[in-house]
Inverse folding.
C-alpha cells in the first residue's frame, strides 16, 4: 500500500506562519523554489515524512500550459476561491508501482528531464486536495529538531465537499483518513517509537487550517 511521502498547506507569501512552528522547537529542513511553477516552500522533516509550507510567488508561472491544470493560483487564495489549501503526496512501496489513483504525467521545469510526477486526475477540482505521487520515497535530511524522531501515525484531512466521483472517496493510503466536514482542516498526529501520542498540541488556526498533535 502506498504511504504518505509529504503533505502541504498553502500559506501567505514567505510563510510567516512558520514562526509558530519555530517557536515550538521545529527547524526548517530545506527551502526550495519551484522554477517554472511559481511556488516556493519551507519544509519541516519528521522521521517518515515531512510537512511543506507552500506559497505562490509568481502568478504568471502558475498560468503556464503545464502548471495551470493544478489550479495553483486559486489554491493559494483558497478562502476567496473556495479551494482546498492542501496537497497530499504519496510514495509507492516499489518505484515501479502505479499510483493508487487515476493520474497524468506532470513534468515541471524544476525536475530532471527523465522524471515526472504522477498527478491525480482531480487536479482541476480545486475544492479537493491536490493529489500526486513521487517515484522516490521519502528520505529524511536536514537539521534535527524537537519532533524529528517522531513519525506520522495518522493524517486526517477534512474537506467541505467532495465531488460525486471523487478520486479521494476510494483512496487507500497508509495512515491517511479523508472525511467530509464543514471546513478545510488537516490534523497531524505524531508519535515517537511505539509510544502513544502525548497531549501536546499546536493549533495554527485561524492563520492555517492545520493542527499538530504529539
Amino acid at each position: 500500500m502506498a504511504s504518505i511521502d509529504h503533505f502541504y498547506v498553502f500559506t501567505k507569501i514567505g510563510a510567516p506562519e512558520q514562526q509558530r512552528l519555530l517557536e515550538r522547537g521545529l527547524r526548517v529542513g530545506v527551502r526550495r523554489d519551484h522554477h517554472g511553477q511559481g511556488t516556493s516552500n519551507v519544509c519541516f522533516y519528521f522521521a517518515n515524512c515531512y510537512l511543506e509550507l507552500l506559497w505562490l510567488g509568481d502568478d504568471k508561472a502558475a498560468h503556464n500550459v503545464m502548471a495551470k491544470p493544478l489550479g495553483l493560483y486559486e489554491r493559494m487564495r483558497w478562502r476567496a476561491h473556495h479551494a482546498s489549501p492542501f496537497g497530499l503526496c504519496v510514495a509507492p512501496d516499489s518505484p515501479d508501482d502505479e499510483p493508487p489513483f487515476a493520474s497524468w504525467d506532470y513534468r515541471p521545469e524544476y525536475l530532471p528531464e527523465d522524471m515526472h510526477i504522477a498527478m491525480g486526475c482531480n487536479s482541476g477540482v480545486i475544492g479537493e486536495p491536490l493529489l500526486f505521487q513521487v517515484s522516490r520515497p521519502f528520505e529524511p535530511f536536514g537539521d534535527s529538531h524537537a519532533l524529528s524522531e517522531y513519525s506520522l501515525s495518522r493524517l486526517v484531512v477534512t474537506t467541505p465537499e467532495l465531488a460525486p466521483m471523487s478520486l479521494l472517496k476510494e483512496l487507500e493510503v497508509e495512515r491517511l483518513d479523508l472525511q467530509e466536514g464543514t471546513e478545510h482542516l488537516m490534523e497531524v498526529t505524531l508519535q515517537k517509537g511505539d509510544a502513544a501520542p502525548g497531549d501536546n498540541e499546536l493549533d495554527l488556526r485561524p492563520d492555517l487550517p492545520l493542527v499538530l498533535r504529539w
